[in-house]
UniProtKB/TrEMBL annotation:
GO terms for molecular function: serine-type endopeptidase activity. The keyword Transcription does not apply. One of its GO terms (biological process) is proteolysis. SMART domains: Tryp_SPc. It holds the Pfam family Trypsin. Keywords: Disulfide bond, Hydrolase, Protease, Signal. This is Peptidase S1 domain-containing protein. Gene3D superfamilies: Trypsin-like serine proteases. Residues 30-269 form the Peptidase S1 domain.
């Protein structure tokens, strides 16, 4: 007990259980490459449609997954109904536990144009069992600041190159160590006109930047940006916005998780009050629409 108390006192404040952010004992990652070893990021999940990877996400408790609002709304609506899986191209996914999704909860003030409040929660119908390959990531308390010289990674299965070529078979989870970029520098870089739209991008206080000035962060939309502190991994950001690899002055923009502590805890702790407005075109088994019932879409959660 004394040891546990001393250990806790050295850690930043946690939003979730103290048993989080731990990596299993795996062999070192591939040198000079981005392929990750199995189980290295045990909170990583993939939003998929028909076997095609769409977005990333992270396990924050045994009943909740954190991702981006853009992954559960808008153009992705009918693409994210099939599975969330920890590995792509697995021939026997049915050998793993299947958990139905209970609710998709995007932030109420998500702005597609500015990408503000680009964060969402996915509640599972049944808790997933923690084990060697399934662990939650730690969440930082409101106001926590990550050191710019810290150890941070992004991970996912997204496209390679400039976003045009999908990750080839066998679709091994990719990882990339990235530097954090200070808010003033990031805001300055994004004040320059975009190479895609010709317009500057407003980097708000609820965003955090990571990646390289020459462009790209390697993160999937909705995927986690994690940083190590005191031997544990904390989710600093949710991948929000990027302009592709090789675009200079464009590090990745992530939704700052610590800025949404109250929103996350409110949704997680008050699930009895959650609902899906009928204006959202998301079909779930318990949402009855007069024009569409009894048709519905099942969302599932696969973990390796």
């Amino acid at each position: 007990t004394l040891h546990t108390a001393t250990w806790r006192s050295t850690l930043p404040p946690l939003l979730c259980s103290p048993v989080c952010g731990l990596q299993p004992a795996v062999t070192p990652r591939i040198l000079n490459g981005q392929a990750s070893q199995p189980g290295r990021w045990p909170w990583q999940v993939s939003l998929r449609y028909g076997g095609t990877h769409i977005c990333g996400g992270s396990v924050i408790t045994n009943s909740w997954v954190l991702t981006a609002a853009q992954c559960v709304l808008g153009g992705f609506i009918f693409d994210i109904y099939n599975t969330i899986s920890s590995h792509l191209h697995r021939p026997f996914l049915n050998q793993f536990d299947l958990e139905l999704v209970r609710r998709l909860i995007p932030h109420e003030k998500y702005n597609k144009s500015t990408m503000e409040n680009n964060i969402a929660l996915i509640e599972l119908e049944q808790p997933v069992p923690y084990g060697h390959l399934i662990q939650p990531v730690c969440l930082p308390k409101s106001g926590h600041t990550f050191q710019l010289n810290g150890t941070c990674y992004v991970s996912g299965w997204g496209a390679v190159g400039d976003g045009q070529e999908p990750l080839p078979y066998p679709g091994v989870l990719q990882e990339l160590r990235v530097p954090l970029v200070g808010p003033r520098k990031c805001g300055c870089l994004y004040s320059l006109p975009s190479q895609l739209s010709g317009q500057p991008v407003n980097v708000t206080d609820a965003m955090i930047c990571a990646g390289f000035q020459e462009g790209g962060s390697g993160a999937d939309s909705g995927g986690p940006l994690v940083c190590e502190e005191s031997g544990l991994w904390f989710q600093a950001g949710v991948s929000n916005f990027k302009e592709g690899c090789g675009h200079t002055n464009r590090p990745g923009i992530f939704t700052l998780v610590s800025a949404y502590q109250n929103w996350i805890t409110d949704k997680v702790d008050k699930t009895d009050f959650l609902y899906l407005p009928l204006t959202w075109h998301v079909l779930l088994p318990w949402v009855r629409w007069s024009s569409l019932w009894p048709l519905y879409v099942k969302t599932a959660f696969f973990i390796l």
